From TrEMBL, chain A:
Example GO molecular function: lyase activity
Keyword entries, A-Z: Iron, Lyase
Keyword Manganese on entry: no
Species the sequence originates in: Plantactinospora soyae
Domain Phosphomevalonate dehydratase large subunit-like span(s) in chain numbering: 1-413
Alphabetical list of InterPro entries matching this protein: Acnase/IPM_dHydase_lsu_aba_1/3, Aconitase_4Fe-4S_dom, PMDh-L-like_dom
UniProt name for this protein: Aconitase
UniProtKB/TrEMBL annotation, chain B:
Name recorded for this polypeptide: Aconitase with swiveling domain
Species of the source: Plantactinospora soyae
Boundaries of every Phosphomevalonate dehydratase small subunit-like domain copy: 30-109
SUPFAM superfamilies: LeuD/IlvD-like
Phylogenetic placement of the source organism: Bacteria, Bacillati, Actinomycetota, Actinomycetes, Micromonosporales
Stretch list, region Disordered: 138-171
A Pfam family matched in the record: AcnX_swivel_put
Source organism, top-level taxon: Bacteria
Molecular function terms, GO-annotated: lyase activity
Composition bias type Gly residues, residue spans: 141-151
Amino acid sequence: MRLTDDERSMLDGEQGEAVQAAMDLLVRYGEVLGAERLVDTDNVCGANIFGQRQMMLCGASDPDAVFSEFSLDSPRPVEITPMKAQSYQLIGPMDTQHWQVQGLSQEAHDAIEESESYSARHGIHLMNTCTPYQVGNVPVKGEHCAWMESSAVVYVNSVLGARTNVEGRESTAAAMLTGKIPYWGYHLDDNRFGSHLVEVAEPVTSSLDWGLLGYYVGEQVQEGVPVLDGIAEVPNLVKLKHFGAAAASSGGVEMYHIPGTTVEARTVAEAFGPRRPVQTLRYGARERRQTYEQLNHTARDSDVDLVMIGCPHATLSQIRDVCRLVQGRKVHPDSALWVFTPRAIRQVAEQNGYAQILRDAGALLMSDTCPAIGQFLPKGTRVIATDSAKQVHYLPAIMKVQGWFGTTEECVNSALTGTWQGSL
Amino acid sequence: MGEANTVTLRGRGLVGGVVEGEALVTRDSISGWGGIEPTGGRIIESRHELSGQSFKDKILVFPGAKGSSGWSGMFHMSRLAGSAPKAMIFNYMNTKIALGVVVTRVPAVTDLDQNPLDVIETGDWVRVDADTGTVVVTKGGRPGGGVGGPETGAEKAATGRPGKEVGGHDD
């Protein structure tokens, strides 16, 4: 890989040990990719909040040592210097308000809190959400970014036209320290054109519809760049958030086009540019039903122990929708309703009275984390329900529970009645 | 060259080193975060062909990496837990697998001149030389049969401490 004089000086250690370790990682990574060079970035989203498990595996509690190993792949501990690029913490392991509900011990809480403050001291903005684009980090078209979080990557690439690959913890931490990331993949014009044409023959309107379509498309195109044709109704942020998260879970979709809606293509022809579709897929009633059945394949028992809303983290509009469904009613004593949102949005929800409506109904408004990331559920949970195709893809595998997938209304109703009654 | 029941593949070595071991082969791409449990190196994705099986100490042969951006983080953790595969052989390059093989620090090879998924079967004995990008497959298991056959001197020592209860939190 070709390095500039500045990058060479980083690699040679002239800008400190932490920057050197970061550049070493970027060079090893870039060479495996086959990247020709690095590109400057000043917008990095990563995940560097650690707890007791990482300390144990690392055999050290010193935060520099833990960061060196887990964030920079440097077995030799180095002193971590302030982040050079604008750096943002993604979703993390703990809700700082409801950590006891998560079942965390005081010691586990303290370790995570210490790690958060270590990140803050090093210049990492504590956004603590999988949806930074909801709370102030809205990259512009053409901006070179280095983001983790597959659902956020597909959103900013496709909807906003920013440029990032799905990065990992080590590459984003290295980008934070150096302001560099390999110039590869979706940073290059040629890789951003469509690969598969998806003829959407079924109306796609609700969030559930968009989750189903995303899950189907991801499974079909895997790493491809799908182009959706036949979308009659312009989707909003919530629907695209569900669509991209689902497509990135069942496959590896990092970029898609909805001509006329997403920013890089006004027409199908523009979406494909010089490429020809490698395959044309048709999404009809049969594909929709099969996808619904796949998403519900782990579920058997209709007694629902937990309803999870907010994957990716809920918008204020989703919180309001849940409030309208629960207002004046109570969550069933044998069930629970947890809504997840960015910390900043929880504050607005508090100001608007939504948080109080949820409390009155016996629901919980959580932030900073989610059950899959933090690996927690109410004690004894066997069956969950969620309106997120992504969450129902992951949570049963991670937490060994059954998972129902349905509309937000079906999910919330199952928390109110304790019983799943959803259907397609 | 080589014995009648061996096949040699040539490709691009990514992370250096030489190792040999038993192959574990899947035609399904692998998810890292939410797809594996790093302590035991087990595949946990419910609809995966290898669901429930462990890749610990195996030569993992698979199409590539999919899913969450926590891929590298999970395989990184499997190394620290002593549950990483011995080597990785795969077809499709992306950022998840690239960063994953770098931080797992095991020999890795891609761009092979024959599709490894067609040539290698679970249980075959495989020697991976990632310094030269060469993969030698002995069909049907370890040469000479039985246990206790020769191990290559260049094999990397496990760097982790096995048996710790771990999980991960980054997507």
